[in-house]
Amino acid sequence: MSEKPRLEELRELLEREIAELEARLQLYQQLLALLEECATGAIPAGRGARRGKEFRSRDGRVAARLVATRDTIRLSFTRPVPEQHPYVRYMLTALERLAADYEGLEYTVERDDEGKVASVIVTGVTRDTEDEVYAVLEFAAKKVSELPLR
C-alpha cells in the first residue's frame, strides 16, 4: 500500500515537470518564430507585430504563421501549398474580392520553385479591413494546418 502513494507522488511530479517543459517549449517556439519573422523582414523596424499566430499540424509541427503589423498581414506556410488546393483557392478568391472592394488593399503571392504558394502578403490593411483580411488568412492557415503532411 505504501507504493501506491509513492507512485501517485511520482506521477504528479512527472506531470508538473512535463507541464513546465511544455511551457518552456512554447516560449522557445515563439522566440524562434519572432527571429524568423525578423530575418525575413516581415516586421518593419519600429513597428513590432500587433498580432501573430502559429498553426500546427496534428503532430505538433508549425504548418503556418500569421503575422499582422500596422498595415500588413503576412501568412507564411512552412510547406508550400499548391494553388489548386480548395482552401488556397478560397483564400485567393476572397483576397481578390477584398482588393476590389477596398481601395489601397493589395496582396502578393510568393511561390516556391515548384510554383506552390509559400506566403501571401496583404498590404494597405486599414482598421476597417484588418479583421476581414485576418479572418480570411486565418481560416486558410487553420484548414491547411489540419491537412495530413506528405
Model description:
By secondary structure, the chain is an alpha+beta fold. The chain has two domains: 1-40; 48-145, Gyrase A, domain 2 (2-Layer Sandwich). It contains three helices and five strands; from the N terminus they run αβββαββα. It has helices at 3-40, 86-101, 127-145, and strands spanning 51-56, 62-68, 72-81, 106-111, 117-123. Helix 2 packs antiparallel against helix 3. The radius of gyration is 20 Å and the shape is elongated. The N and C termini lie far apart (49 Å). Residues 42-49 have low confidence and may be disordered.
Considering DSSP H and I runs of 4 or more, what fraction of the residues is helical? 40-55%
The fold-level CATH name of the largest domain is Gyrase A, domain 2
Count of domains: 2
Question: What percentage of the residues does DSSP assign to strands (E)?
Answer: 15-25%
Termini separation comes to: 49 Å
In DSSP terms (H or I, runs of 4 or more residues), the helix count works out at: 3
Major sheet: arrangement of strands: 1-2-3-5-4
**Which whole number gives the mean pLDDT?**
83
Number of strands: 5
Q: Note poorly predicted spans.
A: 42-49
How are helices and strands ordered from N to C? HEEEHEEH
Q: Class of the largest domain, according to the CATH hierarchy?
A: Alpha Beta
**What CATH architecture of the largest domain do you see?**
2-Layer Sandwich
Radius of gyration: 20 Å
Please state the structural category. Answer: alpha+beta
Keywords: Coiled coil
Coiled coil: 4-38
